[in-house]
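Q&A log
Question type: sequence-to-structure
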Amino acid sequence: SAIILLMSIQSAEEFEKLKVIGRIVRESLDAMAAAVRVGITTQELDEIVCRAKRAAAGLAVHRASMYEARR
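Response status: OK
Response body:
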């Protein structure tokens, strides 16, 4: 049987964090989709996604620290 996990957003801060995660996932998928070609290996795609996630996460941390500085 399937396990269903429900999640609820409790605050505006949680919602903002989910939006950041969503952007990281979207940028990672976009990078992978752009690289797909005949002959590419899943290892190469994994490496592309890892680099994209690290780059996007670095931007997210930078954005978050800028947001905190404004508060």
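Response note: The chain has two helices and no strands.
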